[in-house]
Specification:
The chain has 412 residues and is of the alpha/beta class. The protein has 13 helices and 15 strands. One zinc ion binds next to loops.
Length: 412
Amino acid sequence: MRKNLLAAYAIGVITALGALFLISQSQEQASAAPPSPTKAVADRDIYYPGTEDLAPDEMRIVCCGTGMPSVRPKQAAACFLLELGNGDKFLFDIGSGSHERIAAQKIPYDYIDKVFIGHLHVDHYGDLPSFWLGGTVMNRLTPLRVWGPSGATPESGTQAALDHMKKMYVWDIGTRSGVIDFRGGALEINEFPFNKVNNEIFNENGVVIRSIPAVHGLDGAVSFILEWNGMKFVYGSDTIPNKWFVEHAKGADVAIHECFLPPPLLVTKQGFAPLEALTVGTQGHTAPEQFGKVMSLVRPRVAIAYHFYNDFDTQPEVLRRIRKTYDGEVQTVVDYMVFNVTKDSVRVRMSAVDEEIWPSPPLKKKNAPDFTNSIPISDFTRSGALGWPDIVVPLYDEINKLYGTDYKPAFK
Ligand SMILES: [Zn+2]
Ligand SMILES: [Zn+2]
């Protein structure tokens, strides 16, 4: 790409020299501007989703949520999209607000069918219902597969949480399942024990994912280790420094670990009381100095720090404190940062955002809706409908003519 860029400039320079020669020959004004190159600049050092091949030995990580439970335009809550050169795609956590960032990647929903949840805080799986049911409307036709930890009791584990999620959305499912091809509404729930160390929970297509326990809130928080093609990707979700992470994340190519604001900034910027700042910031979460110490023991090729409001006035202080305990490669990330990683290189860029994103077309032929799945509505509600056949029947006629069908409106 850089060669193309240089070639474009070289052509421009040669053309310019030629123009100058002609100008001097014709005794015209020597200061006339040379013509500029008209070819596209091939490499702008920014990532445009959907425009780049992924090499067979390459992984791409897109930060789809790097912030706090109270999401804001700049930062959704925890979510990292990992794309592998074999075509597999994984979501690690799917916190509040992250669905929008995932959608911005222009990837058909059928291809993002694997979600790994580190623990059941809303900032780590708050957008799962949106991604699940919204995805069914946006052309997902394959089941959504979710992995998450057990809890101290059956009621506090992932299986129970997602069973309740299904109940919470009975009304939503009831409206959609009878009017669209609802195959994408199928949910595969894989709960695994939170307390098994280096426990293999996924092994498909050359990709192995293991879980290790984390120390965060209650029993039932974990971190994930993914290995593929000789590379190791570690995602901490939330945890204070713990022995399992230090032992099993060692030598990772990419290690993502939470990093909170230092306690003084939790007080001044976030309004915490001093004891809250200390308790939350060091005993429930990981302070920057603790993050640095973890990474100095893990020694990844790239350490990624997330889970704080990352601004012009907070980032320098977080980094200064990380540097007290860690001198290796580190990135303090914000949403839409993108990492391209191979065994030899790591490239970090920002992603361009198309705010007018549309869902990708379906990857399979859609079935006609199964009206037998429709839940009947009462005569009362039905009596309120204004069928307006003079408006609606022509709309049906328009589609019937275009597609050779013979559909009739439900409301007369
Ligand atoms: Zn948490
Ligand atoms: Zn969190």
